[in-house]
Design brief:
The protein is of the alpha/beta class. It has 11 helices and 8 strands. The protein has a single domain, classed as Arginase, Chain A.
Length: about 375
C-alpha cells in the first residue's frame, strides 16, 4: 500500500512570484498523477494531511525559531528576511502543513508497514534554529523522528542536486540514522557542504556519507556513484525503513544547478532505491520531494516516481492535457522518457575520472571506521 499526501493548501507555501520555488509544481504534479490514472489502483490512497502542532515541531526545531516563524515577521537571525526565505503571510501554517504531512506519513509506516509519498516535502536545508535554502521546517527530520518510535535503523538517501545539509546536521551524532547524499559538489553550489570528510561525530561517526559530484555529471556518473556506494551501505547498515528525498534539480534543464541528469537517469535511481528498500527494508519507504525548478520537468518526474514506488512502469503516452499545457506555455513538446542527452566523450571522461577519485577517498575513510568496502 502507498499513501499519496496532497492538498491544494500546499500552494500556500509561496515565497512570491519571482521566487524560484513556485508552488504550481505541486498542483501540476497532482494533476498529472490524476490524468495518468495512477490513483485508481487498490494499492493507492490519497490522504489530506494535518498540520504539525507546535509541540511536533519542537522535535526538530528550537522554540525561539518556531516562535519567529509563527510571528510571520522578517528576522535576519532566523534566516527569514533574505531572497531565499522571505517571510510571507501564512508562512507558519503552510510550513507546518508540509511538515505535518511528512510526520503523518511516517506514522502510517510505523503502524502499517506501507510506503508514502509527500512530494511537497523534502525541505532538507532547514536547520533547527533557522530557515535555509527555501526550507522553513525540516519535514524530513520530523518524519525520521516519528519513525524512530519503532525503528532503530533508518537510512536517509538524498538525490537532490543540493547537499542535504539540514538533515545531516540534525542526525550528525546519531548512529540510528545513516544519511547518504549524492549531490553536486559544494565547491560551486549552495550550501557549500557535503564533502567526503563530513562523516559524523561522536557515536555518529561514519553514519554521514556524502558523494559530491563534479559539475556536468550525467546519468553515467550518477549510476557509478550510486552503485559503488549505496548497495554496500544497505548491506552493512541493514535499514528497517528508508527515507528518500527525490529532488529533481539535477536534471539538465534545471537552471539552478550544473548537473546533467536525464529523466531516464532519475528513473534508474528511484527504481534502485525501491528495489533496495524491498530487499533490505521490507519495502518501507517514506518518499519526499525536494528541489526542482523547471515546471516542465518536475511534475512528470514526481508522477513517474510515484508510479515506480508502486512497482509499476511509467506509461509511454502523455495525457493530452499535459501536452497542451506545456505546448501553450513553453511552445515545445513536453520532456518525457527517454529524454536523451549527449555529453562529449572528453567531458564524460573528465567527470568520471574525478568522481572515481572521490569514491576512492570515501571508501578509504569508511573502511577505516567501519570496515565497509
Amino acid at each position: 500500500m502507498i499513501y499519496l499526501y496532497y492538498t491544494d493548501q500546499f500552494m500556500g507555501y509561496n515565497f512570491g512570484p519571482e521566487h524560484p520555488m513556485q508552488p504550481a509544481r505541486l498542483m501540476l504534479t497532482n494533476r498529472l498523477i490524476e490524468e495518468f490514472g495512477f490513483l485508481s489502483g487498490l494499492d493507492v490512497e490519497r490522504v489530506i494531511p494535518y498540520y504539525a502542532s507546535y509541540d511536533d515541531l519542537l522535535a526538530v526545531h528550537d522554540s525561539h525559531y518556531v516562535d519567529a516563524v509563527r510571528s510571520e515577521e522578517p528576522s535576519r537571525s532566523f534566516g527569514l528576511d533574505d531572497y531565499d526565505n522571505p517571510a510571507f503571510p501564512g508562512i507558519y501554517d503552510s510550513s507546518r502543513l508540509i511538515a505535518g504531512a511528512s510526520r503523518e506519513a511516517a506514522e502510517r509506516i510505523v503502524q502499517e508497514d506501507c510506503s508514502a509519498f509527500n512530494f511537497a516535502g523534502g525541505l532538507h536545508h532547514a536547520m533547527p534554529s533557522r530557515a535555509s535554502g527555501f526550507c522553513v521546517f525540516n519535514d524530513a527530520a520530523l518524519g525520521i523522528f516519528a519513525l524512530q518510535k519503532r525503528f532503530g535503523r533508518i537510512l536517509y538517501i538524498d538525490i537532490d542536486a543540493h547537499h542535504g545539509d539540514g538533515v545531516q546536521q540534525i542526525f550528525y551524532s546519531d548512529p540510528r540514522v545513516l544519511t547518504v547524499s549524492i549531490h553536486e559538489t559544494g565547491k560551486h553550489l549552495f550550501p557549500g557542504t557535503g564533502f567526503v570528510e563530513e562523516l559524523g561525530q561522536g557515536e555518529g561517526m561514519g553514519y554521514s556519507v556524502n558523494v559530491p559530484l563534479p559539475v556536468n555529471a550525467s546519468d553515467q556518473a550518477f549510476r557509478l556513484a550510486f552503485e559503488e556506494v549505496v548497495p554496500p551501505l544497505f548491506d552493512w547498515f541493514r535499514p528497517e525503513v528508508v527515507v528518500a528525498q527525490l529532488g529533481v534539480d539535477a536534471h539538465y534543464a534545471d537552471r539552478m544547478t550544473g548537473l546533467k541528469m536525464t529523466l531516464s537517469g532519475y528513473q534508474y535511481l528511484v527504481k534502485r532505491i525501491r528495489e533496495l528498500a524491498d530487499q533490505r527494508a521490507a519495502g518501507r519507504v517514506l518518499a519526499l520531494g525536494g528541489g526542482g525548478y523547471n515546471l516542465e520537468v518536475v511534475p512528470y518526474a514526481w508522477a513517474m516516481a510515484f508510479q515506480l514506488l508502486r512497482g509499476r512502469e511509467m506509461p509511454l503516452d502523455l495525457p493530452a492535457w499535459w501536452v497542451d499545457f506545456i505546448q501553450s506555455h513553453v511552445h515545445r513538446t513536453p520532456v518525457c522518457l527517454p529524454d536523451p542527452l549527449e555529453i562529449s566523450p572528453a567531458e564524460e571522461a573528465r567527470v568520471l575520472g574525478e568522481l572515481e577519485g572521490t569514491i576512492h577517498d570515501l571508501k578509504s575513510l569508511l573502511s577505516e571506521i567501519h570496515g565497509i568496502f
